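tool=predict chain=A
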Amino acid sequence: MTIKNLIRTALESATNRMGYDILLGKRPEKSLAYVDRNQWEPYVNGDPRFALYRESMEITDMLASNTTVRELRYHALQQLISTVLANDVPGDFAECGCWKGLSAYITCKLIREYSSGPRQFHIFDSFEGGLSEKTSEDRGEHTISRERENEEKEYFSSTMEQLKRALSEFDFYTLNKGWIPERFPEYQDNRFAFVNVDVDLYEPTRDSFDFFFPRLSPGGIIYCDDYNAAFFPGAKKAIDECVERHRADVAMVFEIPLNAVFVVKGASLPAPD
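tool=predict ok
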């Protein structure tokens, strides 16, 4: 092992012990900064979508975990939800994997403010130990070691009590406790306008897409938060396979930079005013 590799390994090990997942690699010459906060912050500080994101971070006690990447993703998520509501796409909303309720709170706020009529919001989560078991599709060059998987599960765990506290001001949501897809058959006859899939791993991502996409109304959207995430390669694999299976009904697939994707059913939608 070269001296450079020894130094890199030592730095990665030290930062991992402090609770950070950092992989060091050589930066290509003349490369640009990954995210330039000098360009981003002046814009978001006056943007109502960022204000709602920050409000949700406070409500769910997640301010300490804020990142610019998350800010960008949630800005995009809010635009998608607003588009579906502005175009009055019929059907309920659903979320698979809610963690502490960050996106669930944002979704409830937008439904209450912009929906033209009653909407139900169905939330699915195990509420018992975070992520489900990984398969071979969930392991890759950048995934964590098997020894650290229990730590990862604990990090992503949450309780129904936490979520109920975060959503205490809303009365139009249902909580469905169970490992995906256990509770899905109860919604066999429902139609959906928007589905947020944030379950990280291959099998629950696949099962969520295959269940909800056929039940989306035309113009409805499925959003996946982990697409192209190096630590969760199974999410991308699942979405790509599902899109191919349902290709005849897919109007658009759009990869959002910084680890997300959305798929539109049946017809493209104009942006809201």
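The radius of gyration is 19 Å. Residues 68-86 form the longest helix (19 residues).
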